[in-house]
From TrEMBL:
Domain PIR2-like helical span(s) in chain numbering: 10-124
Protein name: Uncharacterized protein
Domain called DUF3615: residue spans: 231-326
InterPro entries assigned to the protein according to its UniProt record, in alphabetical order: DUF3615, PIR2-like_helical
Pfam entry (one): PIR2-like_helical
Amino acid sequence: MQTLKLLLLDKIHAHYLEALARLPGDVLRKCHHSSLLRAGYCYGPMDPVSNIILNTIWYATTCPTQSDFEVAMICTKALRRIECCFLYGLVAFLLALFNTLTEHDVVWYLLVSNIDAAPAIAMAEQHGHVLSGAYHEAYSCAALNSWHPDPKALSKLTMSLLQMELVESLWNGHALSNSEVEQLRMVLSASFEVQVSPLDQAEILSVNQKRFITDIRKKFQVDQEFFASKANAALSNYSKKNGGDFEIHVICGVNPYVSKGARSHVNFWATPKRSNIAGATPRLFFAEFNNDDKEEESLCFSVSSASIDSVRCFDCECHGIKIVHPCGEVYHGSGDDFNVMAHGKHSIASAMSCSLAPASFMSTRCAY
């Protein structure tokens, strides 16, 4: 069961990576990063990536943030948290629909269906299971089990989307333009009332809470500036070697603990500069660089999110951080560490075996 859940989390992460690529970079960095991490779940009547995007735009529309916080990097831990929460909720969703399914059955159907609820439901019915619950109740159950900020609103949204053909006509699976996002926003705002809190967040928080949030933001901005600078340098080296001229769309995964903290592994989406293709999908990259100011050539490769569970890295797996690595390339963590650990000679072999115990996995809201 534990291994299946880990595989499911890999597939869920791939869906979120695709959703980040298909949202326009400017609105993603300005506001949609927040709504995606708060309520951008895969629930809904469409495919998982489309559902993430619709839920993200819907939440940004109906529950706008009180202040702008523009980012160039998605917090790795926050992204992992919503992926874990979504897995909780999706399992609860199917269990609410079928009272004859076990949790193992649900996890298996989701794995075979690539985390798409509709095919999973169809397979369950083909195997003789009969729907015993109502969809609106199942969506409510999913929202509660995934700690959605507004479970009732999510249930209403998902049921309403089933009747909204216009939304589906606006979405055909490509990277969205700003005008298409605005069209979706207008459709959703016309159907759902915008919720504005009577009190500003600043009026609710205590002085210590405000100071804590300010310190966290400052730390994040310092880290973001460092990783963005390093990623841009790595991307520039890639362009010199392979041709093309790219700019970073968004940084979507960081592991700063490679080689005992001396190096970092990073994923980011990048788009061609001066591209004349509207809605062109960005390209996913992997980079490895040192964590100091020493002049050392970085590694940078174009990768595919489809290979997320087929290429391994000892350092990233050790720290529970999901980074897409390049196939057939040499990087820190791809060498002999796995063999050394398999023979019980690695310094963290016992720690790894404990961290992978079934009772520990998914025991908290976050995988970290």
